[in-house]
Amino acid sequence: MTSALLSWFALLLAAPLTVGVATRTQSFLTGRRGSPIWQLYTDLWKLSRRGIVYSLTTTAVFRLAPPFLLAATLLATLLLPVDGRQAIVSFSGDAIALVYLLALARFVLVLGALDTGSSFEGMGASREVTFASLVEPGLLVALIALSVASRELSLTGMLGAPLWAQWSTVAPAVVLLAASIFALMLAECARVPVDDPATHLELTMTHEAMVLDHSGPDLAMILYSSALKIGAFAVIMLDLLVPRAHVGPWTAAAFVVGALLVVGAAVGVVESITARLRLPKVPLFIAGGGALGLFGLILLLH
Which tens digits make up the pLDDT trace of 51-89? Predict the structure, then answer.
């Protein structure tokens, strides 16, 4: 449990680095100076010290959305075996709880956007829900495939030692599942080519459109939750591709930080070589990511 807690704290502390590395990588590959990799830490610190402005049209739903979003995301990370061995909270069927916690986080953010009464934020919420309805089946297929590969019903077994005991026979399928998780992460976490977190064009905004009315500590919680969600997906890919059942606690934590940096760099590469897809093309991209997981499941069942 010490190793699990240490790795979990490493995830919490280093999650903002993923966003910073992605931005820095994109800037480097496109010939720009860019912001430092610790920029999100600075932004979170500044936002936490500012006041909050609430519209007169909003209710308690808008005010409760950011803390509920952060709480649901934190609970989701507790279900993951961040150290590659044991999750802090583990039970049979917790993979379904992971999917529903991510859905709950999205649901409260959408409710907050709708509570503003703004048609613009309603448009962003509509797009967010549409994309989410396509991501969730793909994520469920990937988790089902992992359950088949590891013969386990909990994330601790699906992403830990039981999976690696079967690695020699399931390696091709697991690689496909890791690719599927990465593609679905880009959609779930509102990154290019599905969404552009740096966009200022109103007609192309999705996630950013929903959080325009948030400010101060509320916006800090939303930004941190977004970084933490990317970190959670990075941990899943790390568990799929790198065995860590026999490493020490500090080494396991170092692996987590390394995975966050690698995934951040990968996101930055994708964002530097691709453009945001037109809205009609986004479902095809998400379906392609889900198809990779389906192919992995077919390999396991063959």
Answer: 999 988 999 999 999 999 999 999 999 999 999 999 999
Question: d(Cα 223, Cα 232) in Å, to the nearest integer?
Answer: 14
Residue 117, SS3 per DSSP? coil
Rounded to whole angstroms, how far apart are CA atoms 212 and 214?
6
Q: What are phi and psi of 194, to 5 degrees?
A: -80, -45
Tens-place pLDDT, residues 207-251: 888 998 999 999 999 999 999 999 999 999 999 999 887 889 999
Q: Which domain holds residue 285?
A: 2-301
Query: How many structural domains is the chain composed of?
Result: 1
Q: Is 84 in contact with 242 (CB distance < 8 Å)?
A: yes
This prediction has a pTM of: 0.96
Angle at 241 between CA 253 and CA 23, to 5 degrees: 65
